[in-house]
Amino acid sequence: MSKLVCTLDDRVINEYPLTKERISIGRRQNNDIVIDNLAVSGLHAAIVTIGKDSFLEDANSTNGTFVNLKPVRKHVLVDGDVIEIGRHQFKYVRGNSQVSVSKSATPVKEQHGKEEHAGSTPLEKSPHTQPPSLKSLIQMSRPMKSEEESLSETTPSPIEAVSLPIGKLRILNGSNGGKTLTLNKTLTTLGKPGTQVIVITKRTNGYFLSQVEGHEHPNINGNPLHTLSYGLKNNDLLEISGIQMEFTFA
Length: 250
Fold this sequence. Notes:
Number of helices: 1
CATH architecture of the domain at 3-93: Sandwich
Strand content: 35-45%
Shape: elongated
Number of strands: 23
Radius of gyration: 19 Å
Largest sheet: 6 strands, antiparallel
Structural class: mainly beta
């Protein structure tokens, strides 16, 4: 099972197994991982795990989310990636990989969500330059971007499928009716944050749809989706946040 190893000032604080499909990280107490300091947004980021793959998404945070010192919006996690949120670092350990921890590092006690360690100082602002304000996830209720812009919203795949036909979504209603979104990246996020958000992942054996946010389920061929992951088939009809789409292979 994959996990996150959290450190602060080179001291191990905790380990978080990625047992849920969606793990939220932020300052609010209703998050799965709570970081109680002002550099962290209420909902800062989330990690979506589908099968053996995990994806990191920044939740339009104020100070940004970094992976290996680079700001990211969406990122396909690989073993050893270091996620930085505020002053906290989370090392992604895939499966049964062993995480290396400095011998000088010692566990840190946590009390009421706050860290205690020798020589602690008040939280300072992140040393990184704050990135430009980040837009929300693709919102289908707004005019859809061009196909080229939409593709830039998705996350590049470290391993592209060799023989899998390219999938496409054709918008059937609304002001964007007739437009097409090509699904040629590993992870595509669709929906309206806070209401209904789904991800479509491209794997070597097909395209799979999963819901990651919202109480209302998306409809597949007129029926609500109740499974964790659904393998999309040619000519499937989807309804997400009121927008109807048809999935086809190119």
